[in-house]
Design a protein that fits this description.
about 200 residues; membrane; two-stranded antiparallel ribbon; mainly alpha; cell membrane
Amino acid sequence: MAERKINPVLKQVLELGPTLVFFAIYMWIKDESYAIAGTEYSGFIVAAVVLVPLLLASIAALWWLTGTLSRMQIFVAFMVVFFGGLTAWFNDESFFKMKTTIVYGTFALILGAGLMRGTSLLQWVMAEALPMKPEGWMILTRRLALMFAALAIANEAIWRTQSTELWVKLETFGMPVALFLFLMANFAMLQTHMDEPPEDKP
């Protein structure tokens, strides 16, 4: 099924909104604790649990409006639901924090597995949106696999050694911005590998 186009601003709101709401809720209740069914939960765990239905609602809205979902969206949604559930069940913040390590680590392993077979899985996912020569895709895939691995290691080090508040800020803003800047810098450096659009013949 072909993807239906929607307003790009609305798409960004649906994709980024749940994470920003999680951040806002956490900052609002970070110092509070809540007794639910006889168990004491920290503000972080409450915010993490609230994120789950918000994310599912945004994913459902994207699917309803566009008629399709990417594999990445489905995978991230599954991870949030699974680790959010573990966080609430065991009343342990570490499950939700290690989710980011596993997501980035999985992306690194998937891209790395493709490279070991001499193929770029990134090209398979993004070729229609970004016309680039095969050698360019291989370069970008190698670099992105290393970037995902670095983010996984960084997340693991941060949540184990730093405060929850710092982790939330870096999870919400620091790591996504670092990944965005990394991609923009690489797209600029790989301009020579871009496919030229075909010229219109008279």
